[in-house]
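Case study: RNA polymerase sigma factor.
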Amino acid sequence: MADNKEEAFRKVYEANSKKIFHLCYGYTGDDDAANDLLQETFLKVWQNLHKFRNQALISTWIYRIAVNTCLTYLRSEKRQAKDELTPLMAENKREEFSEKNEQVALLYKCISKLEESERIIITLVLDEVPYPEIADVSGISEGNLRVKIYRIKQKLTELYNHYERL
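Here is what the predicted structure looks like once written out:
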């Protein structure tokens, strides 16, 4: 029985870990913190796998766990200290990136400036999660989701253009 649980968990992890890492990175803008949150999320998945009832897609269930884990982390995080360190860390990392990676880093920097609910939605969009699943995770209708995504993209474009000029 234990082997079945381990095998099921391994498959779930392989299918979802990359997307969950992107979600966590969207919240933190930091590789180490994102990896910690990824591990914490999947620890909770492992501990609660027996409670999953197939009422939603397992990926939706995992996203909810990840979002709650990230929100708890952000609430406990000392915001001011993080806000002071983040630009410095971003500058140090920027030197390590090629031009394309620099654009990706800038995109994630812009995403980190969005409101929490917007970060969740745009990260899921970037990971090509289907809209019905994003609507389920975010708790809004699909029609409202499409409007929100449009507005988030406008906001991101403005932020991106602002940083590009700097």
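For the exam, be able to explain this: Confidence is low (pLDDT under 50) at residues 92-97.
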